[in-house]
Amino acid sequence: MIVDGERYENENEDGYSTFTVPVTVFDEEMTVLADTTAMGAPHEIEYQLTFYADSITDKSELPQEAAKRVLVMAAVIIVVGGILNYFVNKRRNRDFYGKNNSGKPRK
């Protein structure tokens, strides 16, 4: 891919092409050239890309990062819930049977 006369190489060896290029302008078209092998021999195609400034977010707001935070919170809730459940059941059994967990009567 060529941006402002500078050539950027494909970063992905398998599947779709991936490029990291500088964004030279926001909220209006930015012209880039890209090599393609589609439809026969390799040739350059001109593309017009538009990057909207109001769509830029902090990396921590990306959907992948948000999903990671949700998974971590779910894991914490499950662990804490399991610990609480253990102690509640232990107390319930002691109160119901009048014994501690060893099977001996409470003193």
Distance between the termini: 80 Å
Radius of gyration: 30 Å
Instruction: Name the helix and strand elements from N-terminus to C-terminus, one letter apiece.
Output: EEEEH
Q: Tell me the helix content.
A: 25-40%
Shape: elongated
| Computed structural class | alpha+beta
Sheet with the most strands: spatial strand order: 1-2
What oligomeric state do these chains adopt? Answer: single chain
Strands, count: 4
Roughly what is the average pLDDT, rounded to an integer? 83
SSE layout:
Layout lengths: L1 E2 L2 E2 L21 E8 L6 E8 L12 H35 L10
Antiparallel strand pairs: 1-2, 3-4
Structure write-up:
With 107 residues, this protein is of the alpha+beta class. The chain has one helix at 63-97, and strands spanning 2-3, 6-7, 29-36, 43-50. The strands form 2 sheets. Strands 1-2 form a two-stranded antiparallel ribbon. Strands 3-4 form a two-stranded antiparallel sheet. It starts with a strand and ends in a 10-residue tail after the last helix.
